[in-house]
Specification:
Layout: E1 9-15, H1 22-30, E2 37-44, H2 50-60, E3 66-71, H3 76-85, E4 91-94, E5 100-101, H4 105-115, E6 119-129, E7 137-139, H5 146-151, E8 160-162, H6 163-169, H7 180-190, E9 194-206, H8 212-218, H9 220-230, H10 237-248, H11 251-254, H12 262-303
Parallel strand pairs: 1-2, 1-4, 2-3, 6-9
Antiparallel strand pairs: 4-8, 5-9, 6-7, 6-8
Helix pairs in contact: 9-10
């Protein structure tokens, strides 16, 4: 089937020193069952070989709408905004260079937005994967709720949304180093945009020991203060006052529990419980998996049978396999 000249979806991949991961992210876009997309890779001032890798990917797929933009390092928010501004699709999907999407991600999220003009955002469950040989782990997320979104992040950054939402919010806040996706979703809700959650793991998040998601978890209260300041009408006066103090006065003192408003402290505790449960599940899975592998090798050694080989990477799971 010939490609349409006007893409329906613009996939935007910011990349800062993630050249080693970029081909996998791009391959997951190339594998989509929905074909009417363009891909904009934004090199965010990388010092590795991101530019060369990206140029090679563009050259190897001349029949696809893939292009590279370059800018001085300005952070993920600025890189996303740059890519979206230069793109043409009526729907936008942000995808970080170290993550992937399942083959039906675009097909199923586009279907949601095409079917209901009252829905502006289509999110999905997530599967986590690692750089070693662990099998992917599916992580279900709750159905969309405006109130729940104010309590904790219930939509991952990699969700499909209408371009009008990005325009209305004014893009991602480029002053936020972490939590910019949560702030963006709350901005969408504040402007009256609704969301729908697909209970299938169609987005793959690479589970690493480093990354902005860890920084966001460690600085949760400070991020909440920024969000409150950015969307004051959604919060109580006492909460707005606390956020102002965090951002303009002695932040360390204001972030101690005795100075945090009850609603923020309760929500932060719920986020901590959620993250703790996720991390515990991942640690347990890792321990169990490697224990099983050691047992298999020991049994194989005793019986003289070669231990089963381990693939370098499990195939990207579909909704059913994950």
């Amino acid at each position: 089937m010939p490609l349409r000249s006007d893409p329906v979806v613009s996939v935007v991949i910011p990349c800062h020193n993630y050249a080693r991961y970029l081909p996998e992210a791009v391959s997951s876009v190339l594998a989509q069952t929905f074909r009417a997309w363009e891909l904009v890779i934004v090199d965010d001032g990388s010092t590795d070989n991101t530019v060369g890798v990206a140029q090679d990917l563009v050259a190897r797929h001349p029949d696809r709408h893939i292009r590279l933009l370059r800018q001085a390092n300005a952070g993920v928010s600025a890189a996303r905004n740059t890519g979206i501004e230069a793109s043409a699709g009526r729907y936008v999907l942000p995808l970080d260079a170290d993550d992937i999407i399942a083959p039906t991600m675009l097909e199923k999220t586009v279907e949601v937005l095409d079917r209901d003009t009252g829905i502006a955002i289509a999110s999905t469950d997530v599967f986590t994967f690692t750089d070693d040989d662990l099998p992917p782990q599916a992580m279900p997320l709750p159905a969309f709720s405006r109130e729940l979104l104010l309590q904790r992040l219930i939509m991952f950054y990699c969700s499909l949304y209408r371009r009008e939402a990005w325009q209305a919010v004014g893009g991602y806040d480029e002053t936020m180093r972490a939590g910019e996706d949560w702030d963006f979703w709350i901005g969408c809700v504040e402007h009256g945009f609704d969301a729908h959650h697909i209970h299938e793991p169609l987005f793959g998040a690479r589970n690493k020991d480093t990354g902005l998601h860890l920084e966001a978890a460690e600085n949760d209260l400070a991020i909440r203060a920024r969000i409150v300041a950015n969307h004051p009408d959604l919060f109580k006066p006492i909460t707005r006052g606390w956020a102002h103090a965090v951002l303009t006065q002695d932040a360390e003192a204001c972030l101690s529990d005795e100075h945090v408003p009850d609603d923020i402290l309760t929500r932060a505790a719920e986020m901590d419980q959620f993250l703790a449960a996720v991390m515990a599940l991942q640690r347990t899975t890792r321990v169990q998996y490697y224990h099983i592998r050691r047992l298999e090798k020991a049994l194989a050694a005793q019986s003289g049978i070669a231990a089963p080989s381990v693939p370098e990477r499990e195939p990207t799971p579909t909704a059913s396999s994950a």
